[in-house]
Structures are given as C-alpha cells and as structure tokens.
Specification:
This is Late embryogenesis abundant protein. This protein has one helix and no strands. It has 78 residues and is an all-alpha fold.
Length: 78
C-alpha cells in the first residue's frame, strides 16, 4: 500500500502535468491566433497596396492622355 507521501507526490505530479498541458494549450491557441491576425493584416495590406497601385496607374494614364490631347496627339484629334 502506498504511503501518504507517495500519494501526495503522485497527486502533485498529476496537478503539474495538468497545469503544463493547460499552459501548452493556451500558448498554442495564442500563437495560432497571433498568426491568423498577422495573416489577416498582411492580406489587408496587400489589398490596400494593390488598390493604390491601380489608382496611380489610372491617374498616370489619364495624365498621359491629357498631355497627348493638349499637344494634339490624342486619339480624339485624329
């Protein structure tokens, strides 16, 4: 039969194991959540950059067309 000290040590080891498992689970969940948040932020940044690039391209094309029209080289004057 196990002594009271042995039972206490087994109980303490069991509690430590449960605490370690809970800590690992919390850390894994927090890490996964952080990774998902970072990925979401990167996706949003990529969308903003793409939209900005499209706007700049459209503005540059418009400016080039305006310059051509001013110089009489535009398609509307042909």
């Amino acid at each position: 039969m196990a002594s009271m000290q042995e039972k206490t040590e087994e109980w303490i080891d069991s509690i430590r194991g449960a605490a370690n498992s809970a800590e690992e689970s919390t850390n894994n969940s927090a890490g996964q959540s952080a990774n998902e948040s970072a990925q979401q932020g990167m996706d949003q940044s990529a969308d903003v950059i793409q939209q900005s690039g499209e706007k700049v391209t459209n503005m540059a094309q418009g400016a080039a067309e305006d310059a051509k029209n001013t110089l009489g080289m535009g398609q509307s004057n042909n």
